[in-house]
Amino acid sequence: MDRGLSIAWYDLPENGREPYFDWLHKTYIPKLLKYPGILWAAHYKTDESIKPLPELRHTKDASIPTGYRFIFLVGADHAERFSVLSPYNLKGKIEAADQKMLDMRIGERLAIFTEEARVDGPHAKEREGEYTPGPCIQLGSFNSGSHDEEDELLAWYADFRLPSMADMPSSIGMRKLVSVSGWAKHGVMYEFTSLEARAKNFRSHEAKDPKKKEWTHDVVAKLLHAPGSPNVAERIFPPVKR
Question: Does domain 4-237 have CATH number 3.30.70.100?
Fold first, then answer.
């Protein structure tokens, strides 16, 4: 199973994106997939037209990088596989051509997560390959507050959100993540069959239960998100099969 996730959020300059995409998809990803335990890599573009809920809060810590428009994910059998790919171990070892392309990333924020829990949705069998994440994802990265709030967050995911995603129309699946490295202690990745299907089902499915809808509002209001979180994004590599 792919229990470890490495995630990079970043922006790119308007000019020079196509050579960067060509390098990332055709040169860099094949290199990464040669490392032991690295199982997949996927590249997403955030849909900036989707705005966060009004009760959602973001960190104002100026030391936290603010990139969010592109998301690069790498999956491994466990999080320790990323040691060899960490900035600590790669310092001074990256080829000059690769470093030139990596330097194009603006406001890059890095995190490594390990999986806490997962659930398959009704459309899990439509996954394109054994590991490739869905055509659309919603990716949140955030911190909670007090010990009591952490306990409530655990209960909310276990008792409501995970079961909800197990029977939500258009849901491929969901993973709840906890941090190995990076600013956010918590992460969550939802997978959907399409951007349009997510928009149709994600809020309306849970709104059927007023008490749980109110609980969601209360929990979300207590969280402190990373810049741009949660990202709703479409996969640009591997290409989505239509």
Answer: yes
